[in-house]
Design brief:
Length: 271
Amino acid sequence: MKKIAFTGGKGGTGKSTIAILNAIELLKEKKRIILCDCDVECPNDYLLLDQKLKKAEQNIYAEYPKLDKSKCTLCGKCQKACRSNAIFQAPGQFPVFIKELCSSCGVCWNVCPQKAIQPEKEKIGEIFVNKVKKNFWLITGVVRPGVEETGPAVAKTKKFALSFAKKQKVDFILFDTAAGTHCPVIAALIGSDLAMAVTEPTPMGAHDLKLVLELCQKLKIPFKVILNQSDLGDKSKILEIVKEFKTKIEKEIPYSKKIVELYSKGSLLDY
Ligand code: SF4
Ligand code: SF4
């Protein structure tokens, strides 16, 4: 099973569209495919494929610290150990946990010498499965509004998708990542055999492409560059970057009114 991530740094470059069009091409070659939407804060692949997210297949939980004040000696070790700055502790006061900043890493309940912190499970999202076509499944992770640290939810969605992929004996699993180079994108990229970096011929497209290629290098993931809407801007900066990273533009996709129309109707499958 090949694991391919569609990413690109900048939002709006057409990652989801390109991921879906690739899935369609692979279906034409009679491959079995899973598309896993890892953009858990605002997944959109189901909309582009005219699907509905009805009944969740699995819940996504996160663990957050809960303090037992009767055991806490105010030593401050948890606050010092938290790399997310999710613990505030005023002098002589109990630590306060800021859930919005907490990544559920577990460091605080492990460093507390008094075992005064216990993890408390909370539902933060859901995973959905849609059978889009014969041999084509869409797996979507969604977190509830207000969850700031979504990396763990992406990791759980991927874990579910990989296990589902094994059961279905698929040939390809395509991960559609969020935009950017932050934790949720890293979680989506890790373990991929190949990253397809989708960009556009704009200064921001070039800037963010460089960041995502640096990230792929750090994660030791081979990458290819796809230039979407290649005829709508100045691609000189993109060419400089691909040269710098000793690669090339794998594919140039010119602007297509047909794709835009199908995108807006949520019927990319008709492409
Ligand atoms: S590490 Fe434990 S004992 Fe120390 S301040 Fe934090 S909760 Fe209290
Ligand atoms: S679980 Fe991790 S991120 Fe959350 S408060 Fe504890 S140390 Fe900080």
